[in-house]
Amino acid sequence: MTKFDVNETVAAVTNRIIERSKPMRETYLGRLQDRASKGPKRSTLSCGNLAHGFAACGVSDKENLKGDEVANLGIITAYNDMLSAHQPFETFPALIKEAAREAGGVAQVAGGVPAMCDGVTQGQAGMELSLFSRDVIAMAAAVGLSHDMFDAAVYLGVCDKIVPGLTIAALTFGHLPAIFVPAGPMTTGQSNDEKAEIRQLYAEGKVGRKELLESESKSYHGPGTCTFYGTANSNQMLMEIMGLHMPGASFINPGTELRDALTKEAAKRALAITALGNEFTPVGEMIDERSIVNGIIGLHATGGSTNHTMHLVAMAAAAGIKINWADISDLSDVTPLLARVYPNGLADVNHFEAAGGLGFLIRELADNGMLHRDVHTVYGHGMDDYMVEAKLDGKGGVERHKSPEKSGNEKVLAPFDKAFQKTGGLKMLSGNIGRAVIKTSAVKEEHRVVEAPARIFHDQNEMQAAFQAGELTEDFIAVIRFNGPKANGMPELHKLTPTLGILQQRGLKVALVTDGRMSGASGKIPAAIHVTPEALDGGVIGKIQEGDIVRLDANEGTLEVLLDEATLAVREQASADLSANTHGMGRELFETFRRVAGHADEGASVFG
């Protein structure tokens, strides 16, 4: 194999996605091309329409927007100053407007989208809005762009559901060029292993709330993304490896000159790729099946967030591309794990960046046939442009250097021939319970197969109570059900991680099976999550009874309750009182979402 050949499995999976997607993709591209041919043409708006559109602009911007010769950049922002990851976006619109004027264009904030933090809502009622917020974000961004005043858009978002929601919106408005602009990770605080230790001590009652809060405050201490490799930082990796970021932009800390320079550069590039120039790059054409496969490969190679087994399905669908869990699983089987970032290591994303970051990782994958190099990107020339480090050029701008030939720390970022494991960090499970996802990158080999009696809970607090009462003293598999999209919006169940970790440390064989989520922070406990069909939708997870033997085998990719088909066929489905989940913290407003939500393996989306 030469360094330009594509791995046989990668090529085969890509080709079957292309074939499967043809009807949807052709319809999508036809609509996109038709829409692109019609505008936007601000000069054809009625005078009243156009006057409303630029009423608040300065004199020069008004003059520029009266015709079709000057590009107008729409800014969609997820800014709020409660979220550390999104607080830096406060200053970005001014930087983008300044850069647009320098480039002879105009920029306007087209709209804001909500941005909630799963870290704040963990274990709270508000978490039941989290997954659905992705689709709300897509719709909110669509409202902002519906004014049809823009030639391109830049998207300011970082965290869990925000970037997937913005991507769905960008691809829905695929006739427009789109660039995603990150805010970057916060600087390194307390080490992740110290944080995890304090959490376990608190769960055991050995330290109090004061000590726990002090520890958490040292970990989450300033502006920027949380530094562990959860969904937020998985988002940033995806945007870069899919060509939606400027090269080298993902993991530069906020509040730095380089961060500001990258933001201004992104604005100027967005203006350069509009239909008014010679490099028109509508994002719906730019992102194709190969781009999506590159994203999946990146997710596996970095041990990324399990949430993206849903988000990527929904994101791809917005571009008329149909992927499934079998595609994701087959790619996992051939993708080596090249990164060890907490929770599948002790390092954080700043250490990852210092070791060579995405530039090094992308080169290692591409040179070994694991990426499609010739995809289109916002930078224009394929993935080779992303094998770089971004630096200041001494004049306030950005220059790029080739990423280092060797990793700066092979305990954090491994070369291809020294991969931490031969397969990716995510695996799909299937069996008579249904289909599920497991994150294996942080689970030691000796814990990847568990066969034990089921303990049934309908709420993570029920299992917590059983632990506090000293009832969990033997091997078991916790079956936490009625936590799927239709039941209660599929909240993350992070309260379970420290508890199960303690029991595993005590020598018990433990695992989790749930139709809920655990997210990118899934840790060292074998956890079969996103079980579909969910309990409320008639899934077999709703037929498992206390004491039934369940087998989770992450090596073979199976998830079974050890009962014969005849027994399962006559078993009654369990029921649960979900009335408390229908109101409070805005949950009553999401009743329709719960009712129409799709299966987890179809993206858990409310869109048809």
TrEMBL record:
Catalytic reaction(s) noted: 6-phospho-D-gluconate = 2-dehydro-3-deoxy-6-phospho-D-gluconate + H2O
Note accompanying the cofactor annotation: Binds 1 [4Fe-4S] cluster.
Domain of life (superkingdom): Bacteria
Keyword set, alphabetical order: 4Fe-4S, Carbohydrate metabolism, Gluconate utilization, Iron, Iron-sulfur, Lyase, Metal-binding
Assigned EC number: 4.2.1.12
CC annotations in GO: cytosol
Pathway: Carbohydrate metabolism; Entner-Doudoroff pathway
Cited Pfam families: ILV_EDD_C, ILVD_EDD_N
Transmembrane annotation, as ranges: none
Database matches in SUPFAM superfamilies: IlvD/EDD N-terminal domain-like, LeuD/IlvD-like
Required cofactor(s): [4Fe-4S] cluster
Coiled-coil stretches: none
Functional note: Catalyzes the dehydration of 6-phospho-D-gluconate to 2-dehydro-3-deoxy-6-phospho-D-gluconate.
Family the entry assigns: Belongs to the IlvD/Edd family.
HAMAP family: Edd
Name recorded for this polypeptide: Phosphogluconate dehydratase
